[in-house]
Structures are given as C-alpha cells and as structure tokens.
User: What shape does this take?
Amino acid sequence: MDTAERYRAFAREEVAGHSPVYEKLAADIAADPGLIALIDGLPPVKRQPNLLLAAARFLGGPVEDSGAFRDWAAAHWTGLAGTILARSTQTNEIGRCASLLPLLAALPQPLALIEVGASAGLCLYPDRYGYRYDDRPPIGAGAGPLVLTCRTNGEVPVPERLPRVVWRAGIDLNPLDVREEATLRWLECLVWPGQDDRLARLRGAALAAVADPPHLVRGDMNDVIREVVAQAPPDATPVVYHSAVMPYLDEEARDRFVATMRDLPARWISNEGSPRLPSVRARLTRPLPEGRLAFLLALDEEPVATAGPHGEWLDWLGG
Ligand SMILES: C[S@@+](CC[C@H](N)C(=O)[O-])C[C@H]1O[C@@H](n2cnc3c(N)ncnc32)[C@H](O)[C@@H]1O
Assistant: This one.
C-alpha cells in the first residue's frame, strides 16, 4: 500500500466515525503530493498516519485546518521528522481491559499477569477499573472515566466480580513512565482529537499509575518472556496477554513468539487485529463480518470473540 492509500485507509477505516478532525486531515494529506513526498522521505515504519499526526500535535501544530497544517508541516519539517524518528505509536488504551476481563475472570484465580507490549503498563490493572457491560450492574470500584463501558453481543460471559491479581509485570521495547510530563503528553497526543472519553480515562489511569507505578521490563518480548514468566509466583495462574502489538513484529518474530507461547506453562490471551495471528484466524468456524475494524480475542489460540479496537464492544462468537 503506498503512502497516500495508507492515509486514505486510515481516514476511511480507522478514524471515520470517531474523529472527524483526523478523518478530514488524513484524507487531505493523502491528496497532497507535496506532503506525501515529505512523508515518503521517512523510513517506511515511520510513515504511519497516527505517528505523524500525534507528532504534529505534540509540537503544537494545527490539525483542524488542512491548509494551515500543510504550511506548518512544510515549515517545521525538520523538527517534525525529528519527533517522528524519536518517538513511536505506543498508544496505551485501558478500554481494552473490557475485552480481556471476561477471559481473565474465568481463569483459575489468583492470577499473575504478564503483558507483552505494555507501553506504560496501564492495561496491567484490569482489577483497578470499573466495568459496565450494556446496562448490567457495574463490576468493580472504578469511578468516573475509570468505569469502562462496553456494548456486547452474543453470550459474553460477563463476570460478577473482578479477577484477583497477585502479581503483574509488563514487557516493552520502550517502557513508558507516565511520571514524566512529556511522556504523558505524548500518550495524550496519541489519542485522536475529539475522543474526550478516551483522554479522560488515560489521564485517570495515569494518575493511578503515578501513585503506584507498574513493574515494567525493558526488552524484546521474544528475548525476555521466558524469564519474566518464570518470576511469577507458583501459586497463581500465569497469564500472558497482548493487545495491538503484533503489527510491530515481522513474520519471523511473530512465529517465534507463537512457538514460545505454545511451549510456556502459561495461559495466553491475544487481542489483535484479525489477520495478525494466522493460527487463531484459521480456527474461526465462520467468516468475520466485513467492513468493520475488529480485533480477534483468543484464549490459547482459540478465538472467542471479536472486539472493538479500543474495547468499546465485544461480540462473543459462541455456538
Ligand atoms: C500500540 S502499543 C499497545 C500498548 C498496550 N498493549 C495497549 O493495548 O494499550 C504497542 C506496544 O508494543 C511495544 N512493542 C512492539 N514490539 C515489541 C517487542 N518486540 N517487544 C516488546 N514490546 C514491543 C511497543 O513499544 C508499544 O509500546
């Protein structure tokens, strides 16, 4: 996919219906050969729309007006490219805990959680947030933005109580520390404009993490997963999980991770874009609905649900 099509696809498939500002700007960037030429001067992995747009906002660039954006980006390209090269898309979306919760709560308790690709580690606290699935009674003690809402379809095994977590650790190539002001601001810039609910829950979760920082291990998940799982207490169920991480791995690294997970004495929850783990997708017994951006949620490679990319909905596959 060329860069212009990548920006068109981002507008059409990712932000449409969620962020009108980004939808318009990404479509206008796609139609601007001058901007596309600048972006094509970046390494391929750095041409992502969300990275460019977050970097522009981080530097105070205008995103609400495409003409002003074009002029600003051209005039500030060196600084903008520097931020793009120095940072990466590490969106930490606690809404995804609403997708994970039914599986976590159904496992033998207590749990030892190991999240790979944990970013700032805010999804390491599924037991810290509150949940409301449809109009059912709320679960957990979260308050305000820390109550995660989720629309469901099918026989979602909505739990009555939170899982009991006795140990947790995150792994990331570049763990983020939300106690650093610039880091938190970067995470905020990764939330699309207009998504005030996502921004509020990021800030709420970050505030809790400042008071009680997560244990984050720096490293490539393929290099450190075995030693981190080995540190989990023996009387807890070790659960390795990940959301929105597989796009960062090439095929060889992904296959190595899959082989390791099959071998490790741990349960494995994956919550990834549906084509990202072919072994999970191959076990689907019916095709996924077309035209809806969905994650595929699986336990030990068995697909159980499709999920909104930010945990906003959960469709149980069942039957
Ligand atoms: C889009 S973020 C998702 C963060 C978190 N899972 C969530 O759902 O909020 C992906 C994270 O994976 C990390 N990552 C990418 N490749 C990795 C690897 N090989 N080993 C460890 N972490 C990796 C990135 O640094 C980034 O923080």
Remarks:
- The chain has a mean pLDDT of 96.
- The radius of gyration is 20 Å.
- The pocket of S-adenosylmethionine is lined by residues 89-93, 96, 116-119, 123, 171-174, 220-221, 242-245, 248-249 (CB under 6 Å).
- The chain has twelve helices and ten strands.
